[in-house]
Specification:
It comes from Stereocaulon virgatum. The protein has 13 helices and 13 strands. By secondary structure, it is of the alpha/beta class. The structure holds zinc ion (ZN).
């Protein structure tokens, strides 16, 4: 997770345990719970959440879907059991090596759609990944994109907001897919980031009349922190101060591996025993981030020392994954209770609360908090008004009411009018 100097933040998750103008009426849904400043969610502390693979699903849940941590845990456990609890009997990962993936990707798609449906008042699973109000917490999910002509694979950043090309100068090849015109549904993004070869069938989307292939972002960018950090800085012309706080959550160290990444070929071979390599690559990225954020941002990395770093992507032992979940919980709690773990959590919490408090009491723009938390905007409700379709910030609507409608209400009625003018983001089906 990262927070910028203007109060923007990014959450990073790695593998495994890791409008708004409305469109047509009947298709409108809102993910937004009733406003309550007493209920703080992870997305109220971070400006960005990012993740790769199953960490990408978690970033979607905590960021794009504004879930609480408990809601996210429950949804993830259900999804994992529905998918990893039901491997195919014959598949490519074990003798006699039948050439088909270990899991049925349709089950995964169904499980992701089910999560989205439950967050929708209209109960459909086709909500777009692009968020209706970009002032709210943003989400970046990373997958691996294969170029059709050359076959080269590069990281692809699915963003819930628009990322324009950052400069008019020579193309920055580390600026991933800026100005993309493609729009994806949330479930498609979740599917792309989790499409680990040999586990799930690669996913293909129609772009420019061609089918473009995406696979699990874990291959090469299992720790998405550096990609997301760079992408957010690019939005601010590479201002090193653009991000203020980064909280990165790993999925366990693997102390037996050499932290020198050497991926790039023999994709399927690598995926056979990829857990160690992922752990090593994630640690290498962590070392880069320690250097990149020096003197610029507070960088916190939480990563369990022992026991889960070698866990396979699809580990799911015991009834409904009980053994696997118990191991993850025990090791994580032990790490968090250690001197290192508790010190990092305490310092990170302190920084994040400071950012959150500053945002909610920002004198120059007192309404920014309700925009950030709940996507609140305002519409003129007085009829007739030729600006009735327009959406405003509170102060803008106040000026509009005073300038255009002051004969229709007195000063005492102004605040009531403003309260009645609030609008919340509307999710639309494509
Ligand atoms: Zn008006």
């Amino acid at each position: 997770m990262l927070t910028s100097s203007s109060g923007r933040a990014v959450r990073t998750e790695t593998r495994q345990n890791s409008n708004f103008l409305t469109r047509n009426g009947p298709q409108q849904q809102s993910f937004i719970p009733p406003p309550s400043s007493s209920q703080y969610l992870p997305c109220h502390y971070f400006d960005y959440m990012t993740g790769t693979s199953t960490g990408g699903l978690i970033a979607i849940m905590l960021g794009r879907l504004s879930m609480t941590v408990d809601e996210c845990l429950e949804a993830y456990e259900k999804l994992a059991d529905f998918v990893f609890g039901h491997p195919r009997r014959l598949h490519i990962r074990r003798p006699p090596f039948i050439p088909r993936d270990k899991y049925d990707h349709k089950r995964l798609e169904k499980a992701i759609k089910e999560i989205i449906k439950q967050r929708n008042s209209d109960g459909h699973g086709n909500t777009m990944f692009r968020q209706p109000n970009t002032e709210m917490c943003r989400t970046i999910v990373i997958a691996w994109h294969k170029f059709n002509v050359t076959g080269i694979r590069v990281p692809y950043l699915f963003r819930s907001y628009r990322h324009p090309t950052s400069s008019d100068g020579p193309r920055d090849f580390l600026e991933r897919n800026p100005d993309t015109r493609y729009e994806y549904k949330i479930w498609q993004v979740g599917r792309a980031t989790t499409a680990a070869p040999t586990y799930f069938k690669a996913v293909k989307f129609e772009e420019d009349d061609e089918m473009t292939e995406y696979i699990d972002g874990g291959f090469g960018a299992n720790n998405p922190t550096e990609e997301a950090y760079r992408s957010i800085q690019q939005l601010s012309n590479n201002d090193p101060q653009a991000v203020k706080v980064v909280v990165s959550i790993g999925t366990g160290k693997n102390l037996e591996t050499n932290p020198s990444p050497s991926a790039g070929y023999k994709l399927y071979y690598l995926y056979i025993n990829a857990a160690a390599k992922w752990a090593a690559q994630s640690e290498a990225t962590h070392h880069n981030m320690t250097y990149n954020t020096r003197g610029a941002a507070e960088y916190f990395r939480l990563n369990v020392e022992h026991g889960i770093g070698k866990m396979k992507l699809d580990a799911w032992k015991g009834t409904r994954g009980s053994e696997t979940l118990a191991l993850i919980r025990t090791q994580t709690e032990e790490y968090l209770a250690s001197d290192e773990g508790s010190m990092i959590v305490s310092r990170a919490a302190q920084e994040l609360v400071t950012v959150r408090q500053a945002r909610s009491t920002w004198q120059q723009d007192p309404d920014r908090w309700e925009r950030f938390c709940h996507g609140v905007e305002y519409a003129c409700r007085i009829t007739p008004c030729n600006q009735g379709e327009r959406r405003w910030q509170r102060q803008q609507l106040r000026s509009h009411l005073e300038e255009c409608h002051s004969t229709q209400f007195n000063a005492d009625e102004l605040e009531n009018l403003l309260e009645a003018a609030k609008c919340f983001p509307i999710e639309t089906e494509p």
